[in-house]
Automatic annotation (TrEMBL):
Signal peptide feature range: none
Species per Swiss-Prot/TrEMBL record: Rhodovibrio salinarum
Protein name: TRAP transporter small permease protein
PANTHER family per record: 2,3-DIKETO-L-GULONATE TRAP TRANSPORTER SMALL PERMEASE PROTEIN YIAM (PTHR35011), SLL1102 PROTEIN (PTHR35011:SF4)
Family: Belongs to the TRAP transporter small permease family.
Transmembrane segments: 17-39, 45-66, 87-110, 130-148
Function description: Part of the tripartite ATP-independent periplasmic (TRAP) transport system.
Alphabetically ordered keywords of this record: Cell inner membrane, Cell membrane, Membrane, Transmembrane, Transmembrane helix, Transport
Protein's cellular compartments: Cell inner membrane
Gene Ontology, cellular component aspect: plasma membrane
InterPro entries for this protein: DctQ, TRAP_DctQ
Membrane topology: Multi-pass membrane protein
Claim: Cell inner membrane is one of the keywords in the record: yes
Amino acid sequence: MQYLYFVDRLSMFTGKAFAWCIIILTLGGSYEVFVRYLLNSPTGWAYDMSYIMYGALFLMAGPYALSRDGHVRGDVVYRLFPQRVQAGIDMLLHIVFLLPGVAAMMYQGAFYAQESWTYMETSIFSPMGIPIYPLKTLIPFAGLLLFLQGTAEVTRCVWCMKHGYWPQRLRDVEETETAIMHQQEAEHGDKLGTGGQA
């Protein structure tokens, strides 16, 4: 369990650190709209900034989403299964698809980043020729974090198959729909408790 929480915390820290990219994207985009359409003086850096920030955010948010079970899943049938069966399905999919995929991402991404650093690669889409080798360095790093989180998810599946229930995940944020559902469950439980006492 300590390994699970260590990897979950690492993914949470990384995800929250890179979430600041959203603020930079919003401010930079708003500034670009203002100067382009009101002052008729577009910047030369806004596209490059959004390209880099969005790329970094996209890469580094994956482990965080996986740690929160936030990736999209076709669970119409899956959620009807007992938790042990769910864990077996998840473990199979993690071992067969996720872990080999992110291992390939780390392996190939390391060569990709190394090559980019060798000639200090700049963007061919940028009129300013911004360097993109730092962004490419995030590819193997994101792969490593995804691999660690993937092994934590396999550990979580083994725990569930052994004990019959999922171990608790770290909580920090919830979707509004999930928060409302939990609130309704709590209210429904309170009513049942009150009714039982009456």
